[in-house]
Every structure is written in C-alpha cells, then in structure tokens.
Amino acid sequence: MNKIPDAEFSSVFHCFSNLNLQVKVNQRILKAIDRDDPPENLEYSIHYPRGFDIGYFEIKDSLGVRARITSFTQKDINEGRIKYVHRYRVLFLV
After folding, report:
1. How many CA atoms lie within 13 A of 13 on its CB side?
2. Is 29 domain-assigned?
C-alpha cells in the first residue's frame, strides 16, 4: 500500500460580494507544500457541478490568453497565473 505523503495545505476564508469580481489566487489564499514534490507536481482539480455558474477559475498562458480551467498546479499559483472570476453577488470560500 502506498503511503500518503506528508503535505501542508492552507486556505483563507473569503466572501466576495461584487459582481464579476476577479481575484488573483496567490499563496496567501491557496498553498500546498509537499516536501517530496516540487510545486509543478502539486495539482488542484476543480469540479464544476452541473448548473454551477457562480464563477470559475482561469489561467493566463504565456501568450496572455485566458481560459476557464479544471486543473492547475501550485507552480501556476506561485507564478501568479490563476484567477477566480466571480459572477454573482455572494460567494463564500473556505
């Protein structure tokens, strides 16, 4: 059986109240550390339930093109490439 690696994870509670607010996701908001893996190997997966249209995560690529995404890495966060685009009046994140 594979041992689950020791990892640290932190998240900050936020309440967004502005319509179409874009929040840059940085290490103060979302951070995972695993002593055995570099940030590019620490991947977050996003599942948007059917009918979920409150907001979405997007990534800015090297050409400046932005797109809705379903996964990103801690390296993407560290490099400032991830945003959360909030589409409605109130949203709580933990």
Report:
1. 0
2. yes
Domain that holds residue 12: 7-93
Quick: pLDDT tens for 23-39. 889 998 899 999 999 99
User: Which of 55, 49, 45 lies closest to 91, judged by CA?
Assistant: 55
> 16: closest CA among 71, 60, 55?
55
| Contact yes or no for 84/69 (Cβ under 8 A) | no
Question: Does residue 1 belong to any structural domain of this protein?
Answer: no
Residue 81 to residue 68: CA distance in whole angstroms:
12
Number of domains in the chain: 1
> How confident is the model over 41-86, as pLDDT tens digits?
999 998 888 877 778 899 887 666 677 899 999 999 999 999 988 7
Residue 2 lies in a domain: no
